[in-house]
Specification:
Oligomer: single chain
Largest sheet: none
Shape: globular
Strand content: under 5%
Order of helices and strands: HHHHHHHHHHHHHHH
Structural class: mainly alpha
């Protein structure tokens, strides 16, 4: 492999990594959508030229950000760099898709907690900062709703319940962070599979993502955490149950999404209608809950008849 070819791959990947990250930080609202794509150039470079080049790119960006923009941005990028490193380490090991995603997200969650602990020094100080930020964002949202023309009574109810809403969000913060990491990981895996279709089995041991299903024992986490929310218990137990319930619900949402994709593919539904359906699923609560229920009851309904595929001819007869 020529040095010139490596340079031609390395420099554009370095440029696009910087542009994606800085655009995501600088551009309000829309820029946030670019953040999950930041690890993509380094991941693609590592697959083309070798893992070492992808890691070297990430280290260069961290150093540049540290000396030019300060340690805050450098540490923020380090979390995304960790996503790329953990994914790279998981490739080629024959792990299932859920092992790759959960392992990477768990590593990122631990690193994020470590970063926040480093900045704020204690859990109470972190909660104060997060509470203030949530209160400010809620006030901004209420002002926007008021300008759009929402009813005054509804806005007053939201203002009165603001402390309870903020407390609830703070309790769910670990689960929300974990789910955000899972989404970022899946987005990167999706684009890698699109760019390198021959490497799909290298990324994770999964024959077809449309046939994916959550591990069967996960149902007990969903059931037990759900029931725990209705029984008297301490705040710590309630918060733990709520986070476990949300995380397991997200995995059943992904299973339901796989079922929807399976039948879209089987029935040759046009891509325009598929895109419209996915938008409704993400943004319309009723459709979201329907997909969660679809994934949950697939444990008993086996809507894709996957269990029959696993049987040998004598068992089928």
């Amino acid at each position: 492999m020529g040095r010139l070819e490596i340079i031609k791959s390395f420099l554009p990947a370095l440029f696009f990594t910087m542009v994606l990250f800085l655009s995501g930080v600088a551009i309000p609202l829309v820029g946030f959508l670019l953040i999950p794509l930041v690890p993509q150039p380094a991941l693609a470079l590592g697959l083309k030229q070798g893992k070492g080049y992808g890691v070297a790119l990430l280290l260069i960006v961290i150093l540049v950000l540290f000396f030019v923009s300060g340690k805050e941005l450098a540490l923020g990028f380090s979390l995304l760099a960790l996503l790329a490193v953990l994914l790279t380490l998981s490739f080629g090991r024959g792990w299932s898709i859920e092992s790759v995603v959960v392992g990477t997200a768990a590593g990122m969650l631990a690193a994020a907690f470590g970063f926040l602990w480093y900045f704020f020094g204690s859990l109470s100080a972190l909660q104060l900062v997060l509470r203030a930020a949530l209160r400010e964002n809620l006030e901004i949202s209420l002002k926007v709703y008021e300008q759009v023309g929402f009813s005054g009574e509804g806005l007053e109810v939201l203002r009165e319940r603001a402390p309870q809403i903020i407390d609830m969000v703070l309790q769910m913060m670990p689960a929300l962070a974990f789910v955000g990491f899972v989404a970022a990981i899946l987005i990167n895996l999706f684009f890698l599979c699109r760019r390198f279709p021959d490497h799909s089995s290298f990324f994770a041991a999964s024959s077809d993502i449309r046939e994916w299903k959550a591990p069967d024992p996960l149902i007990w986490g969903f059931i037990l955490s759900g029931f725990s929310l209705f029984f008297p218990a301490g705040e710590v137990v309630k918060a733990l149950a709520l986070n476990v319930f949300l995380v397991t619900a997200v995995f059943y949402f992904l299973q339901g999404l796989a079922i929807v994709a399976y039948y879209f593919h089987r029935k040759n539904i046009p891509y325009f209608l598929r895109s419209l359906a996915y938008v409704l699923i993400v943004f319309e609560q009723l459709f979201t809950l329907f997909v969660v229920g679809l994934g949950l009851f697939d444990l008993w309904g086996d809507f894709r008849r996957l269990n029959k595929k696993d049987l040998n001819p004598s068992q089928v007869s």
